[in-house]
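Troubleshooting log. The previous structure file for this entry was overwritten by mistake, so regenerating from the original sequence record. Sequence copied from the archived sheet and checked twice against the printout by T.R.
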Amino acid sequence: MDHHQFQGKDIPHIKLDPKMTIEDLVEVFSRSGFNGRQLGEAAKLYAKMIKENATICLTVSGAMTPVGFGGIIKSLIERGFVDWIITTGANVYHEDHFAWGLPVKQGHFDVDDMKLYENEIVRIRDVYIKFYETLEAEDKIIQKMFGKDFPDKPFTTAEFCNLMGKLSKEKSKHPEKSFITSAYDYDVPVYISTMKDSSLALNLVIQRLQGKVYNLDFVREIIEQAAILFNSNKSGIVEIGGGVPKNTAQQTGPLLDQILGRNDGGQDYIIQITDARPDTGGLSGATLAEGKSWGKVQDAHEGTVTVYADATIAFPILALYVLSNQKSRKPKRLYKKLDIFYKNLSDDYFKKPSKSKKLKKKIN
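Regenerated output below.
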C-alpha cells in the first residue's frame, strides 16, 4: 500500500460492549490509532506467525518474572506458541522462587529504602522480596544444583537452564509454577544472554573458589541460535523490552550473512514491546526497520510491529489474544534438535563457497 495516499480503513466511532471478548478488544485497538493500533496489529501478527508455523523466539528483558509473568510464558510454551527463549539471568533466577514456594509480595514504590534494608526486604519497584527467606534460600538451591555434580565440561546457557528445569521439576514444591520447568518438559531452549550479570553466576563463585571451573561455551550457543534460524522455513521474534536479549536474537541474521557469507536476510517477523526511544541511538529503542540495514529482518516495511508501551500492560493482551483464538501447535522440541541444526549449518558452510570466501579469493 502507498501510505502517501488518502486510503486505508475508516476510523470507527468506537463502542464498547460489556460482553466483548479479547478478540473484540484487539479489533478495537487495531482499528484505532497510535500505540493502540500498534498493539492490535502486533497481536494479529503474532497470530499470523503461529498460523504459518513460524519458529518463534521470545526475548524477555527487564524484571518480568518477579511480577508473575512467568506464568504467561509458561502458557505460551505449553500451547506451542514459543519455541525458544532468550532472557536475562535475573528472569530465570526470580522465576525459580515460585517453583520453590519462596515469598514474593506486592509492596510499594514510595518508601524509605533505608528502612526496607533494615527490615531485610529487597525492592524491585513495588515488588518485595525477602533477603534471607527468598534470596538466600534461592542461592543455596542454585549452589546445590550446580555444585560438585554439575558436569565438568563446556556448557551453554541452554544446557544450564535445561538442567535447572529438570531439577526444579523433580525436587521443587511447585514445579507447575515455573516456565523453566515447562521449557524442560517441552524441549524449549532457554538461553541467558547475560549470564555473568545475574545472581545465577554469582552463585557459581563459591565452587569456583574451591577449584571447580565453569566453562561457558558462548560461541557454540550463538552458532546454535543462528542454526535455529537457518533450519527454519519461517522465523519470528516476540520481544518483551529490548536490551541484550533483543540483540542476541536479532544478530542471528548478521551471523549467517555477514560472517558466514550467506544471503538469508534475517527474521521474517519481529514484534517488539518497548518504552525506549529510538533517537538516543540505544539498541533497546532502535527501530525494527533500522535492523534491515544489518540484515536482521527480511523486510523494512512488512512483518514488523513496534508497540511503545509498558510491557506489563501490553504483553498480557498480546498473549491472551493468541491463547484465545489460535489452536495449540505441536511442540517443535528444538532443544533435542540443536546438535542436528548445528551440524546442518556447519556442513552448509564448508560445502558451499560463501560470498566472503569468493570475495577474499578475488581480492587475493
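The domain at 22-363 is CATH 3.40.910.10 (Deoxyhypusine Synthase). Archived copy saved in two places this time.
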